[in-house]
Design the sequence.
């Protein structure tokens, strides 16, 4: 008796013998090979494309001859004619096994394909979204065995896809009968399975094969900005990324002023809820247009945000978050219909998922950072700071993770800075100051030249030089400190003391003229003493939060620092350390993770298991409440100096010399501290 | 060593020994005794009232002495002072066991108390509603062990009530924090558990003990009328029953004309959906007012209806129900938020449940009749006819159940009858005609006297005699037949043939003058030849449907007939049989079940298990499609005669003599038949 042909799949290496005539897709399914199919083997969707290999395969112990697969058939012909099939590709549902064969499953044909993000430091996302598309053939109704069209759809899903316990919302029941008849009893359905639940819910239905795709939004809802990625739930591609200002800013720049607004104004929380929901709906519509898709095909929304934004988005009065013991209404993840968040522009059945919150002041954004950066899996003791209006801080390794948040205020984002502006073309983002001449040069967003390069004026003619953004002000302050224009207490020296005419008197203090654009109709861009104080307050809060976690962990130094946050990617590690934003660490161990919270949201969007994982992880994180820790205040005061009043910075000393200068009695630090302690955001 | 005291509960007989000091409620719970409690033993809700018995109990082998329970305590004192406790009653959570004791659990203290309905023929409802109230004490938040208020509520429900997997909609999360603080960390929650599912959902929350109750609506949504019962979900009491006309009547009197309206008018289905939803919302508000409760405390709605009404209520275009193979969009039960049915006057989180449909023409109303009357558990072969604009017909016993529906039209409800009207004060509901004098006497709704009794005119002065309702026209036609005014073909005799001047000529036919109210400013109430034809068409459809099921079952007679339907209670069995509405059967085996569909809805409202049970039962019912059965037509034609052209009525012959008369060539029957076959409703 001759043996059945041997079928070997690569890259998995899974193998088995199958009778002659077995479709490749059938063999793959029986072996548990990760080969995609939406139409279930009807030769329509082309998701099951495979690449057969011919020749000798000593590693696998087989020789593959021509004819090991059945001849190209009419379905493949038609598909190739209409859509085009790459050379060497076959449709797995059409090609049948005729002899020993080695079959490669290309990445785009894998259901659980991996999506690599740009920053290579973090792990790729494995596609396993909560919402998927399948096509199914439904039995026609029979008067003598009456059953509903939906019941026959459920039966078909069970028989053809082994999917049980399917339910449908009213909107799908309303579309069901026309779709079945128009599709000649073949329909595509978008099926949603929430994490940790068995049953699946039909979110939408289309006649025949739905080719428009399914999409999701990963939204990082910050106090100041709302940023979103539009992702293809099929292959994980990011089709568009967009953002807008959080309109709640008009109710208060930081979180605590918004909580106060809610407390002082009856209905104020509802006003803020309405504002943020409208902005999110607008953003969803805009990003769909930018990505060139129908917004009604957005079926999932994942939101990460701090606790106050979380409550305001959900329509929960945040008043309890403004006073000890800072009780969250709910700390677990929240799954709900997106319609309840008034995201009216997207699919009416779309589902929203909010990551869990860690504590009253440590939100779903921190959870998302933990999901993206996985401090719980780090061998090195890792400090992660997610810099925004409110900073989320995580410290940990495989032995355990600590978390807190700290009220840095919006200075790092360019707000509360005299010439501050959003990161947009024309904004100064990089600064260098010559230690000898005290003369600056800078770069602006949207131009690759330094301001001292020939052609800079021409290149920036359209935008001009309009202000200074978050990373720009950090570099400017650090450069001023290194150039001897700023003493450790944060005082700007006058023209005599510094020898620079750019140090201009402003009342009782001085300001440093970074750029005078008046001749081009622009502003005079100064770094004022007030700007320095705002940055000092922000960086002290950040440092004090990190230091508090180090105290709890019982360490004086960390092995590694990751700068995250929407603009974390743009901060220069050296300048951050000169400023004393972060504890001293070897410079090559200070890296940037970009928008880690947003990336965490994308992971949760594309991978169901990640949702369960972060829900588990969050329960194990030890939370530290900065607002009631007496040592926070002490750390905050000591961190006011640049870089620090007491903590040594030996690693920084290796790369930067900070002049030991003193311009006079500092009036900073103390006065602002009391006010700041009441503010979050 | 002395034994622990013996505790015996009646009526269950459950017994066990418990240490001195054990609260009675604790002992009951450990033995699985059905003793209610909402507050969980805090002495607040008084649901756990018990009645201890003292003296000798030879049957139980114990003697109970004074002091077998602890002394009356302060909590009981306060409760008695504020609310009053019946003599001999104790609070089970306060009284503790001190010696051997016999404790009776009165019916009102049982969770699963039984509710007996008025008609004693059917079984009582055991209370086990899907939505129940529990009170719980929640741990206060702790900044150092941060967890959300909701997560601590879930923990308390698990620890205090063994309820796991609790979820909450946004509206509850929004109310949660103020409720917990106002209730000093004690709250009541309405918990909903759908049939066949494990998890429970919090539908609402109140500070402290919620004393306003939880309510449900059982709605029988008919083609012509919408009837509802308002029930207390705690004890099953019906607080109010109310009804109104289905406003869809303006789109067509019967079901098929409404389906046609939807087919002919784009958006017509949406118009009808809006109309019926508005009517239901109005009815819900009215019935709450009538019952004296806040409509926001209505948390459940159970709806039974025929398939066309089912689809129109759900917003599903009923077009498929108008043509073979009469495919339902969904045949299973439907559970959905009542808000999706725009029942805006009730609790925003209320849940709606629609019973399953049996087939394209046999709806959830037939399923409800099966639930109420349980033909599948009958030893006798039982025929159940639910008379309405569309008749639901069930035939079966423990060996199996058959079902069909038949398009009787609205004649039985007084529509399409010249002097027809709704059953309301002033409507003729009972009729007798003297076989000798051919003179009638009658009763009207709202008056206990016969029209020939002294004082009748005085008693009906306010309402007058305004028309004839469904049961009145049935009796009138049957009495005319028995009095020799009507021949078997349905022709009314003239004054010469009948010897009665009440038989007036109307064109080529005659009409019988039942009552002339013109002297009192009222109408002349006549039974016209057209009225007879309408009743003949309706009764033929009903009889033919029943006969078809008997054919399928292979029988010529049935053991028992149950007349159900909103006005089934008012039909006289004898008159129904004279008319030939139902097959011949011993008169004492023809009973009325009142509104069986409405009662089935009430069962499903009050008992979760009943929902699962009817979902199972429905799958086993054999469906017969009258619209495509050739024999239906034949049965219909033969049933046109009064009582019948061919079938013998031996049981009827024992109680009524029907004159063998013939007034001329009948033009009835045939002409109407063709038209009727296209109509349902």
Sequence:
């Amino acid at each position: 008796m001759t043996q059945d042909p041997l079928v070997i799949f690569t890259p998995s290496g899974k193998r088995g013998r199958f009778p002659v005539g077995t479709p490749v897709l059938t063999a793959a399914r029986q072996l548990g090979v990760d080969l995609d199919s939406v139409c279930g083997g009807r030769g329509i969707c082309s998701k099951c494309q495979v690449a057969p290999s011919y020749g000798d395969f000593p590693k696998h112990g087989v020789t593959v001859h021509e004819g090991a697969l059945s001849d190209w058939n009419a379905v493949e012909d038609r598909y190739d004619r209409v859509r085009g099939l790459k050379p060497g590709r076959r449709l797995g549902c059409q090609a049948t096994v005729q002899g020993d064969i080695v079959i490669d499953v290309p990445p785009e044909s894998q259901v659980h394909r991996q999506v690599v993000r740009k920053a290579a430091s973090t792990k790729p996302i494995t596609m396993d979204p909560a919402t998927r598309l399948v096509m199914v053939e439904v039995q026609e109704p029979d008067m003598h065995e009456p059953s509903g069209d939906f019941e026959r759809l459920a039966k078909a899903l069970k028989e053809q896809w082994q999917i049980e316990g399917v339910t449908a919302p009213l909107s799908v029941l309303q579309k069901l009968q026309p779709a079945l008849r128009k599709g000649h009893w073949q329909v595509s359905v978008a099926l949603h399975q929430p994490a940790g639940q068995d049953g699946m819910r039909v979110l939408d239905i289309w006649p025949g094969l739905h080719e428009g795709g399914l999409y999701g939004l990963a939204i990082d809802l910050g106090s100041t900005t709302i940023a979103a990625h539009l992702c293809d739930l099929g292959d994980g591609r990011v089709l568009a990324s967009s953002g807008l200002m959080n309109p709640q800013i008009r109710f208060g720049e930081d979180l605590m002023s918004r909580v106060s607004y809610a407390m002082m104004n009856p209905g104020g929380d509802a006003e803020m809820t309405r504002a943020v929901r409208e902005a999110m709906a607008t953003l969803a519509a805009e990003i769909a247009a930018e990505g060139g898709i129908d917004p009604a095909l957005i079926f999932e929304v994942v939101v990460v945000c701090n606790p106050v934004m979380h409550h305001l988005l959900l329509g929960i009065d945040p008043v309890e978050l403004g006073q000890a013991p800072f009780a969250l209404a709910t700390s677990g993840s929240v799954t709900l219909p997106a319609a309840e968040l008034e995201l009216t522009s997207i699919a009416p059945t779309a589902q929203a998922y909010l990551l869990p919150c860690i504590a009253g002041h440590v939100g779903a954004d921190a959870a998302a950072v933990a999901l993206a950066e996985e401090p719980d899996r780090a061998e090195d003791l890792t400090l992660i700071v997610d810099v925004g209006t409110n900073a989320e801080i995580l410290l940990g390794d495989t032995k355990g993770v600590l978390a807190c948040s700290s009220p840095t205020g919006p200075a790092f984002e360019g707000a509360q800075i005299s010439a501050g502006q959003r990161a947009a073309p024309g904004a100064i983002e990089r600064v260098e100051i010559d230690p000898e001449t005290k003369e600056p040069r800078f770069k602006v967003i949207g131009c690759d030249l330094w301001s001292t390069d020939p052609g800079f004026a021409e290149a920036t003619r359209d935008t001009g030089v309009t202000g200074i953004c978050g990373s720009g002000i950090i570099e400017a302050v650090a450069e001023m400190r290194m150039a001897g224009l700023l003493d450790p207490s944060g005082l700007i020296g006058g023209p005599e003391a510094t020898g620079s005419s750019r140090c201009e008197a402003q009342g009782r203090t001085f300001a440093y003229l970074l750029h005078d654009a008046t001749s081009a109709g622009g502003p005079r861009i100064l770094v004022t003493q007030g700007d320095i104080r705002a940055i000092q307050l922000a960086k002290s809060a950040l440092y004090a939060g990190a230091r508090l976690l180090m105290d709890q962990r019982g360490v004086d130094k960390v092995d590694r620092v990751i700068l995250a946050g929407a603009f974390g990617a743009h901060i220069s590690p050296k300048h951050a350390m000169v400023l004393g934003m972060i504890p001293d660490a070897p410079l090559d161990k200070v890296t940037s993770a970009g928008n880690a919270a947003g990336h965490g949201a994308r992971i949760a969007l594309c991978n169901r298991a990640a949702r369960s994982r972060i829900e588990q992880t969050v329960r194990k994180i030890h939370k530290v409440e900065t607002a009631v820790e007496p040592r926070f205040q002490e750390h905050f005061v000591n961190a006011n100096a640049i870089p620090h009043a007491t903590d040594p910075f030996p690693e920084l000393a290796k790369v930067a010399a900070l002049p030991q200068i003193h311009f006079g009695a500092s009036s900073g630090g103390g006065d602002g501290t009391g006010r700041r302690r009441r503010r979050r955001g």
